[in-house]
Amino acid sequence: MDKNTPKIAVLGAGVVGTTVSRILQEELRSADITIIADKFKEDTVSTVAAGIFRPGTSFRGPTPEVTKQWIKDSWNYWQEILRTAEAPAAGLMTLSSYIFSKENFHTTRNHLIEDLVPVYRAVDEDELKICGDGWKYGAYYSTLKIECSRYLPWAEKVFIEKGGKIIAQKIDSFSSLSEYDLVFNCTGLGAKTLCQDNDLVAIRGQVIKVRAPWLKMALYGDYDTYVIPGVDGIATLGGVRQYDSYNRQVCKHDAAAIMERCCDLLPALKKADVVCHKVGLRPHRVPVRVEPEFFDGVRVVHCYGHGGYGVMTAPGTAIDAVHKGIDLLKSNLRSKI
């Protein structure tokens, strides 16, 4: 390896770390890039998520402008894959979605994507009846979905084919990575101890996966109920958002409440076969941390804290992180001249 070839480590193999690695290979074609993680593919929290492109209105970067740029860049990244023959293998699909509310018109609005997705409009009276009685407000929008059970293996395969390396290892300190010119910290909730970041908390999520190949659109009911189809006919029913909860066990009471709400939203789900129950701990931080830092003598770019919106916003934050990393590398190289 050329001594001027930058040696880069990416910590974390979830959707954020995998996407950072992919973008790094595009931007720094000669770099020696290694993904280091202790969990891969189906063992990551990324595969628990439904993966619909619908950021919550509370999702926030350091400024409103940066937040909007992250979301726009993410949308364009996913659209580029969607336009290729690789889209099915990568787990990408277009998706129509409705969101209904019995309480509040504002619940059906989303200022982060209303001017980005092809269609975002209020529903008419007939559409309010799609999910039964009682719904007073609603919106329809066209979006997309990323199935991480496919995206992660696909992106990992492409990464390796382009010369990337993978090491299965848990990293407890940045000081152990002094051999690398640059480190990207995409450890999600792991950053809480790795960085001693007390602003990072878990938001526990629980979902039910059911077999519903007939379901062709996503449905949301107010804040806490959603039904989202998948590429293999497996729909995701949710959910819960339990702040600062680290319980990874399936709760039967949460499962019963999820099923009751989702069946109230869409009664046909009563006949759907349950495939499995899943629990994931979302790494929540306000704002999401995308910034460079010198940590234990190592040049680090952090990219974590996406909460429940990591799948959809991973590309935008990854692009930002990679650009910051390249600037850090350039300053490092200049310091050696």
Automatic annotation (TrEMBL):
Chain ranges of the FAD dependent oxidoreductase domain: 7-318
Keyword match Oxidoreductase: yes
Binding of FAD, residues: 187
Superkingdom of this protein's organism: Eukaryota
GO function terms (MF aspect): D-amino-acid oxidase activity; FAD binding
List of residues binding D-dopa: 226, 282, 308
GO cellular component: cytoplasm
Entry-linked InterPro entries: DAO, FAD-dep_OxRdtase
Keywords from the named record: FAD, Flavoprotein, Oxidoreductase
One of the GO biological process terms: D-amino acid catabolic process
Keyword hit for Glycoprotein: no
Cofactor(s), names only, from the UniProt record: FAD
Gene3D superfamilies: D-Amino Acid Oxidase, subunit A, domain 2 (3.30.9.10), NAD(P)-binding Rossmann-like Domain (3.40.50.720)
Family the entry assigns: Belongs to the DAMOX/DASOX family.
The protein's name in its UniProt record: (African queen) hypothetical protein
